[in-house]
Amino acid sequence: MKVNNAFFGTFDRLSQQVKGFRGFRPKMAAEVIAAGQSGRTEAIIVTGDDFQAGFGAASAGQGFNVSAFKELLTNALTFDIGSLLRLRTFIYLLGGTGIFLFQTYNTLAIINLAKQNDKLRDEIQMTTSVISSQDLKVGELQSIHNIAQAAASLGLAMSSAPPVEIEP
User: Fold this and answer.
1) 20 is in which domain, residue-wise?
2) Which of 13, 77, 80, 168 has the highest CB neighbour count under 10 A?
3) Contacts of 71 (CB under 8 A, 6+ apart)
4) Using alpha carbons only, what angle is made at residue 151 by residues 145 and 157, rounded to the nearest 5 degrees?
5) Spatial contact of 21 and 64, defined as CB atoms under 8 Å apart
6) Number of domains present in the structure of the chain
7) Is residue 1 assigned to a domain?
8) CA 23, 73, 20 angle in degrees (round to 5)?
9) Are 11 and 3 spatial neighbours (Cβ–Cβ below 8 Å)?
10) Is residue 61 in a domain?
11) DSSP summary character for residue 117
12) Low-confidence ranges of the chain (pLDDT < 50)
């Protein structure tokens, strides 16, 4: 399987080795004792499920392969900078960065437009309030003018003395 992306290639290699690692299990205490009697010395601490399983599985002959684990760990920690320097990978990274920056710019623009929208709504509400109060004042003056015309048609004249307010 040919993989063009460095990330997917590394992931595939790692998953292959993890699948191979699943077949290994640590040595049981009986295997350690047998290894110690033959001259090799190994120290393995058996805990959890392996301890509860007992020594019956030790006769299966599956042991923990230290070199495979070291190879797995080494391959997981190696990083190939050359894959980042390839033109295709650089273009992918550049395109992804461009899309990320464009999306960030759009998000910030939307936030600024929302703030301006709220500010304009407040201005419109204040203007509407002022216009409503002016309409009420015009209506009041219009009604005073109509009353003055009706009084003139009845022959009433405007008084030269200012009006007197009566307080209760």
Assistant:
1) 6-80
2) 13
3) 17
4) 105
5) no
6) 1
7) no
8) 20
9) no
10) yes
11) H
12) 1, 3, 28-38, 55-61
Query: Which residue is listed with tokens 């004042």?
Result: 137
Q: Please, which residues have CB within 8 angstroms of residue 23's CB and are 6 or more apart in sequence?
A: 62
Rounded to whole angstroms, the Cα distance separating 81 from 89 reads 11
In the block, which residue shows the tokens 């550049």?
A: 94
What is the predicted pLDDT for the residue at 58? 44
What's the CA dihedral at 154, 158, 159, 165 to 10 degrees?
90
Tokens of 121: 């709504």
Q: What pLDDT, on a 0 to 100 scale, did the predictor assign at position 136?
A: 94
Residue among 83, 87, 98, 91 nearest 5 (CA): 83
Alpha carbons 106 and 133: distance in angstroms, whole number: 40
Q: Is residue 157 part of a domain?
A: no
> Residue 58 in contact with residue 30, Cβ under 8 Å?
yes
What are the CA-CA distances from residue 8 to residues 4, 5, 15 (Å)?
8, 5, 10
Euclidean distance between CA atoms 128 and 130, whole angstroms: 5
CB crowding 142-167: b at 16 or more within 10 Å, else e: eeeeeeeeeeeeeeeeeeeeeeeeee
- State both tokens at 31: 């295997």
Amino acid identity, position 87: L
